[in-house]
Design a protein that fits this description.
Blueprint (H helix, E strand, L loop, with lengths): L21 H30 L3 H18 L7 E3 L6 E3 L4 E4 L12 E4 L1 H6 L4 H26 L4 H21 L1
Antiparallel strand pairs: 1-2, 3-4
Helix pairs in contact: 2-5
Length: 178
């Protein structure tokens, strides 16, 4: 009969070709799994930190805060305000931030106004009325300037960080009055 060698760790009965027993094997595998999970969490934390300074993350956060600023601005104590294009009165949380020009002027207060979901989504911004009101508000020179800015403006990471800070301060001011 073949002599069974003892486990190298605890001295118990070894399993098959292994140099350790079953209990020590389970313990070692659990430790490996814990170590793997810890490393994965650390990698995710580092990636998240890097992502928080990425252009994409900052643009999304700035856009969310800026939209909230636009929608809450001009609301009464109950949070009610009017759609820019059709004039329907809704709570600011139900409104959306409607753009005349998209992408390049995402953070220009001349370009963004609060709109109801009907005008902004279903009527594609209701641009005929939006443009007419904007023309009355800005004038021809203002509209030309807006169009020029729409073709030239690209936001940097530092500008996005400044927009985020400005919006946070503005939101604190608005929320303290409600």
């Amino acid at each position: 009969m073949k002599k069974v060698k003892p486990c190298k760790i605890c001295g118990g009965k070894r399993v098959g070709n292994l140099t350790i027993c079953y209990r020590c094997l389970i313990k070692r595998e659990r430790e490996k799994k814990k170590l793997k999970i810890t490393k994965l969490k650390e990698r995710k934390r580092i990636k998240k930190e890097k992502d928080r300074n990425s252009y994409r993350y900052l643009h999304k956060k700035a856009r969310t805060l800026f939209s909230k600023c636009i929608r809450i601005k001009g609301a009464d104590e109950e949070g009610m305000t009017n759609c820019y294009t059709c004039g329907v009165r809704l709570h600011w949380k139900e409104l959306q931030a409607g753009h005349f020009h998209h992408s390049r002027l995402d953070f220009d207060k001349r370009n963004i106004h609060k709109q109801c979901p009907r005008c902004n989504t279903y009527l594609s911004g209701n641009l005929a009325i939006y443009g007419t009101k904007l023309m009355m508000e800005l004038g021809k020179a203002g509209m030309r300037k807006l169009l020029l800015d729409a073709n030239q403006k690209i936001y940097s990471i530092t500008e996005l960080k400044q927009i985020i800070e400005g919006c946070k301060k503005e939101l604190e001011k608005y929320e303290s009055t409600m």
